[in-house]
Every structure is written in structure tokens, then in C-alpha cells.
Amino acid sequence: MKEVYLNMPQLAPEDFLPIFTSATLVMIFGIIFVGLYTFAKLEKIPSFYQYVGYLFWFGCAYSLYMLSTLVGSGDFTRKVLMVAMLAYLILPHFIYFLMQETHEQHD
């Protein structure tokens, strides 16, 4: 059986820090977005923080785009990642909607 190797471009050592920073910012901005959105919907913090959370989502999407550029992703992969970021924006709204409908049915 013949071995299959992925033909991935070599990453330059000087790109390590920007790649690591972008990947870290994707996680940090994503967590802050979901946290602000959740706490605003649960009325634990003022509701305008939900809109501040959208700024963090934008930061997350931009960081993910920069990460995909730095690691040399193809156009198709970048498009898939951006669609995933749109889903990451919509998913908390959908989950909150389902949670609200479930509680209304049981009341």
C-alpha cells in the first residue's frame, strides 16, 4: 500500500508569533462574544452589551481570516471558515430562541 502525504506549504519561523496570536484571538474573542451575548440575554448585564458582543464576533471573524491567510489556506477553505463564522453568529440566537420556546411550552 502506498503512503499518502499531504502537500502543505512550509510555515516560516518568523510567522509563528502572528499565527499563534491570531489563533489565540479567535478563541478569546469568540468566548467574549458568547459570554456577553448570553449574560445580556439572561439579563445579568445591561442589554447593550449584546451589541458590544457583536464587535467581539467581528474581531473573531477577522482573526480567523488572518489566521487562514497566514497559514496559506486555499480560497475554498477561507470561504468555508467564513461560513462557519456566520453560523457562529447565528447559533446563539437559535439556541436562545429554542430555550425560550421550550420554557414557554412548559409554563
What do these coordinates show?
It is built from 3 helices and no strands. With 107 residues, it is mainly alpha-helical. The chain has one domain. α1 (16-41) runs antiparallel to α2 (49-70) and α2 runs antiparallel to α3. It starts with 15 loop residues before the first helix and ends with a helix. 13% of the residues are buried.
The tally of helices reads 3
Order of helices and strands: HHH
Shape: elongated
What Rg do the Cα atoms give?
Answer: 18 Å
- What about the largest sheet? none
Task: Briefly note the structural class of the backbone.
Answer: mainly alpha
Spans of at least 5 consecutive residues whose pLDDT stays below 50 are none
Q: Averaging pLDDT over every residue, what do you get?
A: 89
The total domain count is 1
